[in-house]
Amino acid sequence: MSSYIEYLKALPIGIREKLEKEIANKSEKEKEKIIIETYYNWISKCFEPNEAIGILTTQSVSEPATQATMRVYHLAGGTTFKITLGLPRLIELFDARKKISTPMMYIYLKDEYDNEENAYKIASEIVERKIWEEFQVALNLSEMTIEISGEEEKVKELYNLLKKKFKVFEVKKQKNKVILIPKKEYNVKQLRILKDRIEKLTFKGISGVERATIIKEGNKNVIQTLGSNLKELFKRNYEIIDYTKTYCNNPHEIAEVLGIEAARHLLLLEIYKTLQQQGLDVDTRFLSIIADAMCFTGEIQAIGRHGVAGRRESVLAKAGFEETVKHLVNAAIKNQIDKLQGPFENLMIGNLVPIGTGRVKLVYHERNK
Q1: CA distances, 186 to each of 80, 147, 196, 199, 311 (Å)
Q2: Distances from the Cα of 369 to the Cαs of 265, 352, 366, in angstroms?
Q3: DSSP SS3 for 277
Q4: Among 79-83, 206-210, 288-292, which stretch is predicted with the lowest mean pLDDT?
């Protein structure tokens, strides 16, 4: 490596974050010495070839996770946000759930625009406001139409929105009212259903963002939202938002917008952060193995029979995990062969497990005397 910065980048995220705080006020020579020493100290503790890292990872994460609480905490600062933490959050991450209980976004501002005024401006713009919050929506049963009334300026915006969204209506605008006239006959029940759809339509802001608040990270103002729609936020391309730092806490959403590598990094970060919040210290190398296994195929997969565990080639390993009869019957029908390459299947039949020294095969040829 050409410089000590490359050594720093090679370190795991947990060690790197602690080290960056430790060397913040050091001179360049001191930084270089500390970083290189830390790097070689870390690399010397890496695993040996044929080490049973899968079992060690399972033990190192599962045992502390049993100490995680089941509680849901409130954010500090008197806000009404509730964040899922502890064991429920770990289960969400390991199960790779697409719909998480408390989706959130963390929006950072560019350094030159980073102040409370700009932060509150963006926060107020992105919070979703539905039509029922801004207008009065009523059925005119004598005319069989839907009438929406409100402030004149807002009515103009609403008129343009409804023209794009609803092709089944003829949209007419009056001074402070929009009238929706169905292009075909609807009964009262059908008209009420359409009225409910219109009321729930997003008028302003970003769909899915229920609330937003400003939190401090050091000297920076960060907008934290309840509800997430990263794709729509990126489409808006606000000049003052730093999109290189902005993220959400849903790995699937990150994978869709930023790619699988970013999703893998978020999984690692969220698992590490959740454990740290519970006072549980797990080496980030174990967490990296889990994140790598979940993202190995290019898509996020759960740790379970429908994901990582179900991807095993070994019939006996899959049968030993869950749904034993199903896997054995399927293997018999398809004439599958278990090559006995993993530790679990060898253990089941009493073979030497192929890890550590059991992986090494030595052949001795006696010389002719």
Answers
A1: 42, 15, 14, 18, 51
A2: 61, 33, 9
A3: helix
A4: 79-83
What is the average pLDDT across 252-267?
A: 93
What are the structural domain ranges in the chain?
4-43, 129-204, 312-359
Kindly report the CATH number that applies to the domain delimited by 129-204. Answer: 3.30.1360
Q: How confident is the model at residue 76 (pLDDT cuts 50, 70, 90)?
A: very low
Tell me: the pLDDT tens digits for 295-324?
A: 988 899 988 777 777 777 788 888 877 778
Confirm if 304 and 310 have CB atoms less than 8 A apart.
yes
Share of the chain above pLDDT 90, in %: 16
**Residue 322: HSE in the Cβ half-sphere, 13 Å Cα cutoff:** 9
The strand order across the sheet containing 220-226 reads 211-217, 220-226, 104-108, 247-248
Q: Is the CATH number 1.10.150.390 carried by domain 312-359?
A: yes
pLDDT at 78: 45
Evaluate whether 183 touches 170 at the Cβ level (below 8 Å): yes
Query: Measured in whole angstroms, how far is the alpha carbon of residue 189 from the centre of its chain?
Result: 40
**Sheet architecture: strand order including 169-173:** 136-140, 145-149, 177-182, 169-173
Whether 65 and 87 have beta carbons less than 8 Å apart is answered as: yes
